[in-house]
Amino acid sequence: MSWNVVPTQRWVLVVILSGIAILGMTAEFVAPPDPDNAFLLYAAARVLDGAKLYVDLIEINPPLIIAFNFPPILVARVIGVSELVVFRVGVACLLGLSLLASQVGLRAIFSGQDRALHTSMTILIAFVLFLLPGEVFSEREHLMLALVLPYLLVAIAWRMNRPIPVLHAHAIGALAGLGFALKPQFVLLWLVVELWLAVSRRAWPKLRPESTWVTASFVVYALAVLALTPEYLDVVNQLGGPYLSFLRNSPIMTLMFGSGARLPLVALLAFLALRGRCPHPAVSAGLAVAIVGLLLVGTIQGKGWTYHFYPASAASVILLGLMVATVRRPLTSLASRVYGVVSLGLVAAVVLGAVTIGAWKVMDPKGSEVEPFPEFWELAELVRDRAAGEAVAVLSYNMRSAWPLVPYAHAEWPLRYPSLWILWVLYADQFQQPDPLVYRPANTEMPLERNFKLAVVSDLERAKPRLLVVLGSAKDVPGNDARRLDYLAYFSREPRFARELTSYRYVMTLGQHDVYERTSEPLPGAAARPPNRAQGNLDAATRPGIRFAFGGPAERIRLVVFLLAVGVAIGTGWHRGEGRG
């Protein structure tokens, strides 16, 4: 394979980039929004309508991501279209802006000397921005990467003593400042990159426009939080510790088994094996440093969720693609041959896998193989038919149970909390015990539990939701984790909730969720429960986070492509060929 065949004619490049963007955005438009995005859009709309953030809406995220959603909501209200549509169009424009701004760094890095490689890097960047995200599209990590990627390329150019225009540096710095501020953990990436620049040049970096903007953004943001949303500090004080323990894994478990963490680890090993044979050492080293910083960002969050490691995976694809395109062959040592062939296989697997899954999603958006929550469509139809425009409460520790279900079905959310994740934290110490789960009596509850329980009950009593959607409990045995929780039993210990529950009748069970509908008059006796279920008849729990490598269709497709690509590379003697790439 020779990378000299990569198209450099502008119209061919435009066609390829357009195809990537169209496929990625079409796959996004036919799918329901990500749970976090659905809630953040709802929360931003509530704040614009007068709700007080961190009082009427209890959210652990800093306020910037809420404010980030203000513009699409305001535009949607002015032109009279869906807020979700405007938001997605806005994200597409941001990705396009990121791709355009990345050209500043790429032009400085390659200085017009290797147009084919410049073109290849542009295509890879478009791929990781538009197609690679998949179900994590427009998560904060995705937005951060789009905003920060031009800064990373400019930092590499600065390491190579390649200047860029001052106005471009200011614009890229402003974008990066916004990106790093979206989540506190993102500051680690900035520190790692700046430390690399200092160490590699054996001097503390000069004050550059980009780093000045990032620093100023942090200062202005901190002052704005203190002035505009001081209640956030109270929320962090009360819920920060509990949220850190929610679904938390050890750093080693998160790094080794977190969804999406393995590709960056392999990319770093490949970099160590091939760096001496790559003609652009500063570029590959800068990307490797970025991967280290992004792995730290994902690991310290301790959840192992896919989107936490998406930026590290994206940087890994770019690094692996660069090394495959430029590595000098023949590869003589065993390590270089192994990692050269593995890098080629991984690039092929990730690219073709994402294209296949994107096309599959476009052709069959409701298929169980591409929809991670298969019963969503049935639940959405039921909620829309029975409670459109009315309140619907979802009792579940998992955000995916309620979001995007409630806004997608045009219902209203009655609770101040987006999910009941606090309940997981309160009883996690009992999940692995053989004895039945025991809920604490009211007189022994800690303030966190008491305040949380009363807030939920008060919200339900006030709103009187048309529907209750309840995550069904599993058998009360070790191994079922939070699915041992029986939400109705837990809240029914509060007399006000028990009284409200008599006004609901059991309707049906869809997948893992039980649906109850409010009646005009209270029913005699206790509320009916699903048939043939005492404590629970679900044998296994579903826990987001740590998962093994080849559990879903995307992973299986990538495995097949990887094996085929490795087989072809070995069979054709790619690693023994002359030249590069």
What does this molecule look like?
By secondary structure, this protein is mainly alpha-helical. The protein folds into 2 domains: 392 residues, no CATH class; 143 residues. It contains 24 helices and 6 strands. Strands 2-3-5-4 form a 4-stranded mixed β-sheet, covered by helices on one side. A two-stranded antiparallel ribbon has the order 1-6. The protein is globular, with a radius of gyration of 25 Å. The protein starts with 9 loop residues before the first helix and ends with a strand.
User: With helices defined by DSSP (H or I, 4 residues minimum), what is the helix count?
Assistant: 24
Outline, from the CA principal axes? globular
Count of individual domains: 2
Percentage of β-strand residues? under 5%
> In which order are the strands of the major sheet placed?
2-3-5-4
Radius of gyration, whole Å: 25 Å
Task: Map the helices and strands.
Layout: H1 10-29, H2 35-48, H3 64-68, H4 70-79, H5 83-110, H6 115-130, H7 140-159, H8 166-181, H9 187-200, H10 209-228, H11 231-245, H12 251-257, H13 262-274, H14 281-300, H15 306-326, E1 328-329, H16 334-363, H17 376-387, E2 392-395, H18 399-402, H19 405-408, H20 421-427, H21 447-463, E3 467-471, H22 487-492, H23 495-501, E4 504-510, E5 513-518, H24 553-572, E6 579-580
Parallel strand pairs: 2-3
Antiparallel strand pairs: 1-6, 3-5, 4-5
Helix pairs in contact: 1-6, 1-16, 4-5, 5-6, 5-7, 6-15, 7-8, 7-9, 7-14, 7-15, 8-10, 9-14, 12-14, 13-14, 13-15, 13-16, 14-15, 15-16, 16-24
